[in-house]
Amino acid sequence: MKKRSKLDIGWLRIGAVVLFASGLASSKASATDDIVRDGEYNFLAAQHGDVWAEQDKSIDAKLAEYREQNGGKPPNILYILIDDVSFGQMGNRAMNYVTGIDTQHVNKLAQEGMSLMRMYTEPSCTPTRTAFLTGRHPVRAGVEEVKVALVGEGLASEEVTLPEVLKQAGYNTSHVGKWHQGDIEQSYPHNQGFDWAAFPVHQQVQLSLMTREAMQANNMLGFHPSGQSNEFHIDQRFRPYGLVTGLEGEAGGTAKEIDLQPGEEWTQAHYERMNERYQAQVLEQLENLSQKDDPFFLQYWPLYPLNFAYPEQAISRNGGFHADKLQLLDTWIGELLAKVDELGLREDTVVMLMADNGLMYHYEGTSGLSQLIYRGGKTQHLEGGVRTDAFIRWPGVIEAGSAAGDIVHVSDMFTTFARIANATDYIPRDRVIDGVDQTALLLEGEGNSRRDYVYVYEGPVLRSIVKQEFKMHMPAPGVPGAAAPVFNILRDPREENPQIGNALWSGASFQDMAKRHALTIEKHPHLPLGKGKPYEGIENLRPESIETREVFDSWH
Amino acid sequence: MKKRSKLDIGWLRIGAVVLFASGLASSKASATDDIVRDGEYNFLAAQHGDVWAEQDKSIDAKLAEYREQNGGKPPNILYILIDDVSFGQMGNRAMNYVTGIDTQHVNKLAQEGMSLMRMYTEPSCTPTRTAFLTGRHPVRAGVEEVKVALVGEGLASEEVTLPEVLKQAGYNTSHVGKWHQGDIEQSYPHNQGFDWAAFPVHQQVQLSLMTREAMQANNMLGFHPSGQSNEFHIDQRFRPYGLVTGLEGEAGGTAKEIDLQPGEEWTQAHYERMNERYQAQVLEQLENLSQKDDPFFLQYWPLYPLNFAYPEQAISRNGGFHADKLQLLDTWIGELLAKVDELGLREDTVVMLMADNGLMYHYEGTSGLSQLIYRGGKTQHLEGGVRTDAFIRWPGVIEAGSAAGDIVHVSDMFTTFARIANATDYIPRDRVIDGVDQTALLLEGEGNSRRDYVYVYEGPVLRSIVKQEFKMHMPAPGVPGAAAPVFNILRDPREENPQIGNALWSGASFQDMAKRHALTIEKHPHLPLGKGKPYEGIENLRPESIETREVFDSWH
């Protein structure tokens, strides 16, 4: 296991500790609670804490009033997280014309709630999902991207997840769809706070790319054995083999694989059926949860739009293999939101929809999703990797048709949903929580965010710092801070024209921010990633999965 | 004078004439009239002419009904053309958040009318304005970009302009702002169909960049004498000198320079006063025109957002020297539209607002306007150079809040406004008119465009052909057509991933389109550019302008 107790903030060389101390000299305790915060938040709280504390009183009164009118209960939460879709590709008619993808149901949701115009995520699936689940930068939990292979690691049981927090406040919790938090038992969703979960262990590279159909669509090079003869192959395990596909499980129980039988080959048809099943299951879960007394937290993390084979008949004008599925997914979201209405849940359910990171730019030109406004995509610290569409609806509480240009980070939703659920007390106090409470922004509107900064990591490496309209790309090792490029992302959204030479003041300020962050890490070292034997706690493991696990075990 | 009577369609090598003939074999006369069309339009008319003719009957009835309800008169037309602003930078709240520029008044106009989501222009100011004024690709009139210097050329009096067409149908016509159609008397707006005009002869490089303030803002290199000593200068005329600034004139009369006195130095303050004066004058013109019996055609072509000095205090979050003025201009447009309402003109006035071409990418990063969605800018055939925001409002006739993904070219507005003004009969029949009548699109909505193609020129060179969602960049001389890159601009809006190798069918189809276009040119050769002595017809020419003209004359 990799230990992260030493300072590890990537490219930046950390200066003397005396500087850190002076950087934090003016900070004081958070305005609202005793949650452990990053240095930068404390720096802001020192400037605005009194105002925030005052504002929090009226917000608490509003939330209490809501619960009173709702039979003493906080609202339900339906959280939809879409995979690998860049900012501008959902929720906006004008952009639909640019892309030839009709997202009318998401557009409608956007109009019914607040558009968070500056939502930052982590640059890849696993980290963003960890950040949402834990309210922490994933690096603090030892989490990087989980590969499509046996790894014997994943989200540690020591991490406290949002569903665990919400359960303590009486919520019922269900998860449907992509999970991608590891292949060990402690990481499975039904062991991380969900009463019930249906999920694939791995991700879509396995489920839609490692197929014969993806090869035929010219997307998958060299995986499928029908694509080339193999006289000279020695290593039979270079290509992933025998991976578990879709599981279902209940809290405290074992999981069961349901999408594949022993000896069966996974195909695009399996993938499409899996997607359809998740859509059916989220509707089913919504109905089941709505019949219970307690409020619910329902998570729907679709696998689409990721998809690497062409359909029989495209439904979008774009026709790209991701784009077309994005339009299909939009109709499914329409169906889900119609079900919310049909079950009479509209007024009492906070619905949030966002994407986890930017597009898979590797398939640009044929996937149909392209770098649109911001440069870069998945895996990259550029705005195109970490800026996504995000919409949140809570009728009568969040202003319909509103928008906010404030900075929000995906981890903020952990803290904010906890507050809305009256569960702030259950947020752990023994570790850093990066998620900032954004309830003021949602309830009081634009201009009420409590962060104006984001630290952008690629895996364990701090690659950028965002503050206000500025963004510094961290200097490479050995390069002086004064040479680090700083961008104004309003004037230069594609981060192509660094303001080097006329932004030296901001270079110095960014160095201070890096130091405040580093000092926080020094005081509160990163926790270890969960480790274990892969595929434990699955009751019907296929022989091929057992075999592949034995191979894995044989040299670990 | 450059003659263009020989085939000159740029990079494409023209094949045998027999091919052209076969390309046109199935064409027949236009559906609606005897206007001379480009081959490609005839090719479409051969497929859809009967349907269009039928549709035209009901459109004619609608227009007649409108006139009947409006005291026998067609509507007023207010046409606002903004300089150098790329698609997505006006009219859309989400994009306002990206750029930090608030265009709330344009956004509102967009919501009150139809958004033309695929408006193509020419890639630069002079050609786009010629295309609008004449309904012709500027190359047919010998027009390229007019430089900031004495040229002794401009729009020929033989060209028939929209205001000339509208005047024959009884319209009063006024022009306020940028003109940029040449420095010879026949080219001035009051000699090209406008009853009254206030306009600078040249463009904003002279008016805002060739100043001491622009040098101090680090935008203007080497023009202003205070920026360097000049011991070794021999040529006193390398830097433009003595240029005429702002003129006013009435049809049939001489022009008068009003923004500068003899011996005075032009400064940024002059430029700002000039902009403010045009804004005041367009309000004044609107009021004057509204008091007359006949309908009016009022053209407002602001000089802002082009601007190269920083303001005392920025008003936008962006603060870039173009961006900030775009936000100011938006408030001015709000003022103008409020005046339309105040004068009771709202219901009887078609208001159109669009930009003439993409941003000046040369100043990206500091101007505050950046390549956003499409790649490229002014002077380039890339989508970023020729795709602009365009909105048109006609209450009760054009559906409020509607949008159209159909292709439209700026020249279409010539033909369309003529139709709306009941003036189609005055469109000349002795030359090619590229502008397609888009009244069906405006009145019947999305899907009713009568073009699905655009020929994109840079000056006299045909650089791209757009058809449906495809775009071919013309092959360089000597390069086989099969090697020309073809892009799908829905899947790849930035034209970065050519579909070469899997779009050979479209390469062949694009070659056919080029041939149809070339044959039309062969049948109807380009007309000559207007030529003359610069600055004639100005009654108060300053001594320095007289001097600079004499120098010009001395070697021409």
Automatic annotation (TrEMBL), chains A, B:
Extent of the signal sequence: 1-31
Q: Which SUPFAM superfamilies match?
A: Alkaline phosphatase-like
* UniProt keyword Hydrolase, yes or no: yes
Using the record's annotation, list all stretches that form the Sulfatase N-terminal domain: 75-422
Query: Which superkingdom?
Result: Bacteria
Q: Which UniProt keywords apply?
A: Calcium, Hydrolase, Metal-binding, Signal
> Which family, according to the similarity comment?
Belongs to the sulfatase family.
Any idea what this protein is called? Arylsulfatase
What is this protein's gene name? atsA_5
